[in-house]
Amino acid sequence: MSKNNKSRRNFIAGAAATTGLVAASSFIPTRFAIGAKAPIKVGILLPYSGTYAMLGNSITNAMKMRIEQAGGKMGGRPIDYIAVDSEMSVPKAPQNTNKLIKKEKVDFLVGPVHSGIAAAMAKIMGQLKSPIMIVPNAGSNAVTGPLCAPNIFRTSFSNWQPAFPGGVLMAKEGHKTCVTISWKYGAGIQMMAAGRDGFATMGGKSVKDILLPFPNVEFQAHLSEIASLNPDCVFAFFSGGGATKFLKDYEAAGLKDKIPLYGPGFLTEGVEKAAGSAAEGIKTTLHYASNLDNRENEKFRADYNSAFGSNPNVFSVQGYDTGSLLLQAAAAVGGDVESTADVISAMESSSIPDSPRGPWSMSKAHNPIQNIYLRQVENGEQKLLGIAAEALEDPADGCKMA
Amino acid sequence: MDFATFLIQILNGVQYGFTLFLVASGLTLIFGIMGIINLAHGAFYMIGAYLSFWLFGMSNSLWVAILVGLPIMVIFGYAIERLAISFLYKRDHLYQVLLTYGLILILNEMQKILWGSDFYSVPVPEFLSASIPMGNQEYPVYRLFVSLVCMIVAAGMYVVIGKTKLGMMIRAGATNREMAQALGINISRVFAIVFSLGAALAGFSGMIDAPLSSVYPGMGDFILIISFVVIVIGGIGSVKGAFVGAMLVGLADTFGKVLVPEFSSMVIYALMALVLLWRPQGLFGRPS
Known about the structure:
The complex is a heterodimer.
Chain A: H1 2-25, H2 30-35, E1 40-46, H3 53-69, E2 79-85, H4 93-103, E3 108-110, H5 115-125, E4 132-135, E5 152-154, H6 160-172, E6 177-183, H7 186-201, E7 205-212, H8 220-229, E8 233-237, H9 240-252, E9 261-264, H10 272-275, E10 283-286, H11 295-308, H12 314-332, H13 340-348, E11 351-352, E12 360-362, E13 368-378, E14 381-392
Parallel strand pairs in A: 1-2, 1-3, 3-4, 4-5, 6-7, 6-8, 8-9, 9-10
Antiparallel strand pairs in A: 10-13, 11-12, 12-13, 13-14
Helix pairs in contact in A: 3-12, 4-5, 6-7, 12-13
Chain B: H1 3-34, H2 41-59, H3 62-83, H4 93-115, E1 131-134, E2 137-140, H5 141-163, H6 165-175, H7 177-182, H8 187-213, H9 219-234, H10 239-259, H11 264-278
Antiparallel strand pairs in B: 1-2
Helix pairs in contact in B: 1-5, 1-8, 1-9, 1-10, 2-3, 2-4, 2-8, 2-9, 3-8, 5-6, 6-8, 9-10, 9-11, 10-11
């Protein structure tokens, strides 16, 4: 309950501040309010409870750390954070979004983690001119595809981005046939399709695509099936506890040394310890690797570690870059974030030179154009092998802006 | 599917069935004997898994973790029965559902406070960590070991319920609570024992499953739903039914995934619907 309380407290504090602001602005002209540096309101809709609480906390921590490092102000104005626990509930998403937009009147809306919630939020945002939504995780291709809109930006990845180069990689390593396996839900279906397409562009063929009901983790029947199909390689997308179990079962079934396993980086991200030897040697592709050799990454990791006592992950990188994007945009308009159109054009032309994942820029569909790295688990850590795809841009199928 | 693969898939199904039985038997015992719908049963399973992770961290041995963890689960189950469940025997099922649902929320939150939202794993004990070659693949010895343990537990339950005095009291209490009480059986004590044992069974399944399933928040939710399917198919309250139901669900799930992958999530529910159409009280249930 502690985390809920915290966000509720923030929420109450935010609400109190709003009331104060509304009262003040009723007899002070708006210009003057800006002159007096009224706070910029940043709404946050992320999971702070349940299985994905770790993701919500990593993103929030790193974003606030980035803004703190820049003096805790955006474009010279102080910031009000209004955090709401998304509870990973898609049905509650419209209500939570509307609360932040209409009641709190936020200038920016940061969220979510879950692709289903992202779609629900994007549908609402697409009908409005403001506020500006920044997606710090959810990879649903649709958000910067059919649902793309001028006021929706993403600082993370599209599901297509880390998966497609994984399929290309399998073919490059000499494999001709594969089996793909994932959960039957948004991210799983999109990543599996992108991996299969990447493999196919290089002449590879998927002999079977296996989709399990989410979040089923009873893999044994499928492992026996994979063994009898005996493909050259397997492309898998699972994450969290499911990934740990899949890796361990795959090894225990004696398949790890016989049929090499590949996947988007989430397959081995954050599960290196729990999976142990089962993750060892597995190659994945992702837009970040913990030992990326650049000064920004070193500084970021040291700062995060000293502030929160734990190592940052790919989600904290996304949060950190969300902070960078906010700072840049607010600075570009001299703190006048109410001029939404100016903020949007500042964000569109922005590039993030000091990201821990290496420099990236914004695509026409508002998704990062970024390097996808090839990593391998070695002694329980992600080791960088090289760049799998340089400055990779999502195809943004169905987006009218691209 | 060649014959060797077919046999391996049968083994997969039976092996999955055994693990399901271990969880479902505790659930069916508690319902059949005490008339309590214990929604927190999956949470007990999760607590067991976390206990084995935690105790393993201190002792470096799964056996020590289980030996220490089991009494903890018994005491834990007893405390919950005395402090919460015992007040609701005379109430409607709805109250019990509300209470045990609340327990899920409390236990999940407790798990988060104690162990955080990370996922962990417990290594398979050294001498069981091998795999034996079987067809195109290898079969982990630990999975076979878990099946063996489940068989022993099933046999143990059969003996305790069928052949001992405690078992007689349990059966008497299940058949007719008032009559058993009139004959001088301390029914509230029997209930406390049954609930503690049920909790211990769920915890034990979590502990012994931990090396296979890994340990993560909310891991009990899915197992709870499947366990309900198992006991509804087998007939609520019947341990024999839970056994047969678990095997049917294990096999149906395994072959559903392989033969009709598009409908694999529906297969076990379709099985349940068919059984209910044919025998509304379940395979071994008493008609109400």
